[in-house]
Amino acid sequence: MPIFTCAQCGKTFTSRRCLLKHDNFHHKGLRFPCEHCGKGFFGKDALVRHTLIHTGERPFKRLVHA
Ligand SMILES: [Zn+2]
Ligand SMILES: [Zn+2]
């Protein structure tokens, strides 16, 4: 099992996503972490907009694939 260590405090995680989430939240102050990739955001609006990348809820893109 791969171990990912936080460069700031030495805490270890079993997934890169968890480490990213921890780093963004505890060290960078990004209060809104993406559940899908661990990326953090300062505002909820930015997170919601980003989450669309994962959920694919973009009418424009759907039309292209349909
Ligand atoms: Zn840390
Ligand atoms: Zn994401």
From TrEMBL:
InterPro entries, per database record: Krueppel_C2H2_ZnFinger, Znf_C2H2_sf, Znf_C2H2_type
Keywords tagged on the record: Metal-binding, Nucleus, Repeat, Zinc, Zinc-finger
SUPFAM superfamilies: beta-beta-alpha zinc fingers
GO molecular function: zinc ion binding
PROSITE patterns hit by this protein: ZINC_FINGER_C2H2_1, ZINC_FINGER_C2H2_2
Top-rank lineage group of the source organism: Eukaryota
Domain C2H2-type: 4-32, 32-59
Protein name, per record: Zinc finger protein 460
Organism: Dissostichus eleginoides (Patagonian toothfish)
Taxonomic lineage: Eukaryota, Metazoa, Chordata, Craniata, Vertebrata
